[in-house]
């Protein structure tokens, strides 16, 4: 009884530590304290659990933990451009753990004490297994797409009736689940059916998703992984699991909502995975011409500006151009130019991706400005430099009702006095939408690889001295 | 958003009450109270989560996700119990051990990479602006 009490006290302390852990993330100054609180909470929780009477098999436990360290440590060394796939992979692991515990608990009770399979418990187990396994395969698919594995289609795969098929599949899984809840013993053959359907549903959910939708999908899977942990808490009657899972679930929910708003998509639309279906209708309009500029010319203009705003996008990450961008920032700052970065919420492949990449390149975080804070100042900006971003600066989103991205909030790069856009060629971007910005009077294109072009601008600036 | 959460909570309560009715018919000790207790914890923790996470700096959304990931790997607590207790069927222990492995991987890589990312967020140095 005493041990039980100590365990509960440890769980309470670690719940509080987890809440503080997230609370301290409200500012970069205190954020690392948040990690410490999280580690302390986790350690307390594990020690508290090991006090639990009846735990043996120490070799098995030790082996599993050691293997976790062995895989986990190298996973934390991935380059920051690969953080989205690492995150997706860890959602998969979270889902897997929840699903496996659900299976274990069901067969354990079915074999030893079927009377304990009450409707409450069965409901929790079914929810845990469905959420856990769909998160598992869904996240693996997302990670595969982000890693650009060859055998996983990168382009969204869509077919007519896709939503109907997906929903039907989910409905069958839920029905089988209801059967299990009502008759856990007699209908036990339905359990594997629920597992398989959830695994398949996870794959089908992610197949229609394109790269630009990844930030939303990752946030959503984050939320699902958290909810799977909550369900596990209900199954095991563990309040700590419910609390930690709820924190994760609500964090994923908020991030999904932010991502949805930033792409002008409704929440329901996302919940049912009906996204990625924006049909790319490349409007074959009148042939417009874009003006181009040389890096040297751009360097001259940048040098004379007083306020420069850089708009980074996924293209910057692909080209690994963030360190060159830092050199450009240094060169311009040295000349007294005020350089800021305007960050769109869905730039990159996961929430906050650009901020991390620029922080890695040693850009001070005060210079990273959110879209909503930057837009009012745009008319005062002398030069906007767009690096690897496309849809998030397309003015069509503001006025062209026919455009698939109509209504999406954008960074008003077109309102600045002048705009440079670095791009490989005039091919439309991922969504296949023409970008009006490139044809505007005051826009000049810098064709080439982002890293190379920024490098040349830096060279031109360095050549002219500047003290 | 608040409305949605409230609706979900009410729906959950409804299910609980309905299931309690069904449960009483069976001669099994009802677990309804326990369910309601956990539902309270879940709803309140969700509110705390929503409140705390909306205040998280937008700069830190990527580290936030890896941090919450590590925190939700608290699933290791349940996995330890499943894997560590004696069962007739040892497959159960193996399932638990795989769950431990998956959670431990998330804990270790989640906390380490969060700290690695957060270390990179630096303020402007004095005199660096000129």
Strand content of chain A: 5-15%
Structural class, judged by helices and strands of chain B? mainly alpha
What is the overall shape of chain B? flat
Average residue pLDDT of chain B: 81
CA radius of gyration of chain B is: 21 Å
Query: How would you describe the shape of chain A?
Result: elongated
Number of domains of chain B: 2
Q: Which spans of chain A of ≥5 residues are poorly predicted at pLDDT below 50?
A: 274-286
How is the biggest beta sheet of chain B arranged? none
Backbone structural class of chain A: alpha/beta
Separate helix tally of chain A:
17
Main interface by residue count: A-B, 122 and 96 residues
Written as H for each helix and E for each strand, in order along the chain, the element string of chain A is: HHHHHHHHHHEHEHHEHEHEHEEH
> Please, how many domains of chain A?
3
Average residue pLDDT of chain A: 89
Describe the structure in your own words:
Chain A has 17 helices and 7 strands. With 467 residues, chain A is α/β, with parallel strands linked by helices. In chain A, helix 5 runs antiparallel to helix 8 (214-236). Mean pLDDT of chain A is 89; it is low at 274-286. Chain B has 130 residues and is mainly alpha-helical. In chain B, helix 1 (2-25) runs antiparallel to helix 2, helix 3 packs antiparallel against helix 5 (90-120) and helix 4 (75-84) runs antiparallel to helix 5. Chain B is flat. Classes of the chains: A alpha/beta (467), B mainly alpha (130). Chains A and B meet through helix 1, helix 2, helix 3, helix 4 and helix 5 of A and helix 1, helix 2, helix 3, helix 4 and helix 5 of B.
């Amino acid at each position: 009884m005493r041990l039980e009490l100590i365990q509960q006290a440890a769980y309470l302390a670690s719940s509080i530590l987890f809440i503080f852990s997230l609370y301290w993330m409200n500012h970069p100054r205190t954020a690392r304290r948040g990690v410490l609180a999280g580690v302390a909470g986790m350690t307390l929780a594990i020690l508290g659990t090991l006090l639990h009477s009846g735990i043996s098999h120490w070799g098995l436990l030790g082996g599993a933990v050691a293997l976790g360290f062995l895989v986990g440590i190298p996973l934390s060394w991935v380059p920051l451009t690969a953080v989205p796939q690492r995150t997706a992979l860890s959602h998969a692991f979270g889902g897997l753990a929840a699903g496996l515990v659900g299976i274990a608990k069901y067969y354990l009770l079915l074999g030893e004490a079927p009377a304990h399979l009450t409707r409450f418990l069965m409901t929790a187990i079914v929810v845990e297994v469905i959420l856990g396994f769909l998160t598992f395969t869904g996240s693996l698919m997302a990670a595969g797409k982000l890693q650009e594995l060859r055998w996983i289609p990168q382009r969204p795969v869509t077919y007519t009736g896709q939503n109907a098929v997906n929903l039907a599949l989910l409905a069958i899984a839920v029905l089988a689940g209801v059967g299990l809840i009502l008759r856990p013993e007699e209908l036990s053959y339905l359990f594997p059916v629920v597992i398989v359907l959830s695994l398949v549903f996870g794959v089908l959910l992610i197949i229609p998703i394109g790269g630009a939708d990844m930030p939303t999908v990752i946030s959503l899977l984050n939320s699902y992984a958290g909810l799977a942990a909550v369900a596990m808490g209900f199954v095991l009657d563990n309040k700590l699991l419910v609390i930690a899972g709820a924190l994760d679930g609500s964090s994923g929910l908020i991030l999904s909502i932010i991502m949805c708003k930033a792409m002008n998509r409704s929440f329901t639309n996302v919940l049912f995975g009906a996204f990625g279906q924006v049909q790319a209708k490349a409007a074959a309009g009148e042939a417009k011409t874009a003006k181009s500029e040389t890096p040297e010319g751009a360097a001259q203009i940048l040098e004379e500006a007083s306020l420069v705003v850089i708009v980074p996008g996924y293209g910057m990450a692909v080209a690994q151009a963030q360190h060159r961008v830092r050199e450009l920032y240094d060169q311009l700052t040295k000349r007294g130019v005020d350089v800021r970065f305007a960050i769109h919420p869905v730039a990159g492949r996961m929430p906050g991706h650009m901020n991390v990449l620029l922080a890695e390149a040693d850009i001070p975080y005060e210079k990273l400005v959110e879209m909503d804070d930057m837009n009012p100042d745009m008319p005062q900006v002398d030069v906007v430099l767009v690096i690897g971003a496309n849809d998030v600066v397309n003015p069509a989103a503001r006025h062209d009702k026919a455009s698939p991205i109509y209504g999406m909030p954008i960074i008003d790069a077109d309102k600045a006095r002048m705009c440079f856009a670095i791009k490989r060629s005039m091919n439309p971007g991922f969504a296949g939408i023409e970008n009006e910005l490139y044809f505007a009077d005051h826009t000049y294109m810098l064709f080439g690889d982002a890293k190379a072009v920024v490098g040349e601008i830096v060279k031109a600036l360095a050549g002219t001295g500047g003290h | 958003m608040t409305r949605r959460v409230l609706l979900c909570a009410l729906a959950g309560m409804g299910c609980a009450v309905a299931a309690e009715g069904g449960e009483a018919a069976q001669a099994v000790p009802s677990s309804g109270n326990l369910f309601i207790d956990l539902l309270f914890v879940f709803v309140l923790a969700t509110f705390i989560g929503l409140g705390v996470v909306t205040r998280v700096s937008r700069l830190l959304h990527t580290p936030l996700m890896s941090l919450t990931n590590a925190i939700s790997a608290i699933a290791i607590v349940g996995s330890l119990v499943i894997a560590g207790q004696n069962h007739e069927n040892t497959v159960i222990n193996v399932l638990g051990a795989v769950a431990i492995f998956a959670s431990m991987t998330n804990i270790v890589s989640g906390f380490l990479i969060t700290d690695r990312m957060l270390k990179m967020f630096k303020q402007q140095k004095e005199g660096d602006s000129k």
